[in-house]
Amino acid sequence: MFEHMKTLTLRATFSALGSGRLPPYLGSTIRGLLGHCIRDLVCPTPHVKCYVCEISDNCAYAQNFSTPGHQAGSVNPYVLHVLTRGKVEWKEADISQFDITLIGRSSEQGGLMVDALQEMEKRGWGAARIPFKLLKITDPIRNTLIWHQGKMWLRNFHPQPLDCEERFARTAVIHFETPVRVKQGQNLKYSLSFADLIQSLSRRMALLSHAYTENRLEWNESEMLAAARLVRTADENWKENKFKRFSMNKEGKDLYLPAIEGWARYEGDITPFTPILAAGQRLHIGKNTTHGFGRFHVDYDQ
Predict the structure, then answer these.
(1) What is the domain partition of the chain in residue ranges?
(2) pTM for the predicted model, two decimal places
(3) Which of 17, 84, 206, 231 would give a disulfide with 194, using CB separation of 3.0 to 4.6 Å?
(4) Which CATH number does 6-161 carry?
């Protein structure tokens, strides 16, 4: 169903060169660093907002990070997954790891991302400006080297089709590994029915396909949601996460991103939805996926 959509996942491993405190969840910190590094590398008009810039259509920063003016809506062609979580106190030689998955046409921009990851060595992380050294970049899907100690393996840049096969399932336990923000209108949803999940995932996949591939996904959304509403929530456990992040672009102010965390067990005819759930495990769900939000794992009964 999604084979036309290619992805490339890069895993970056950094080592701290100093000590200090960082937020327990580094997704926003890493996203901010990457954005500034990419813009410094490629943007000839850094003082012009992307949505009014005359060259944004041909700008690697705008098209891969800021994505202004897409007819498909506001959606970015990458997601973050921070493997090092919950750590606040950092000392020299402590390790930070994160994955960045590039989606669609942006999966061909692996070289730009490697350059940006190397540039992150030149910037301090967080308000404490802790210096970090890049140790290596790998492809965790294929277990291959991309970069190590200045040596690049270009032959290992291999974007892969998003292959999501259908499997039989009557029960699914979905556990969110990071905060998730699914909204209905302007309101955050504080629990997620199966239909909520499928509606959010189907719209996200359609937007990504439209914006970053040559394909538009064609499906009957009303029929899909009608079937999803027949899947019941058998058990669930949600809690609010009053997430806030520090913004370098907003005069050093804290920005609040209310979200939820938790899990739910769904029961019913889940089989036809397993491909889109598999895609969601790779590409996340909801808002702020570029901070690493909306990552989940699914366990099935069979």
Answers:
(1) 6-161, 171-300
(2) 0.92
(3) 231
(4) 3.30.70.1890
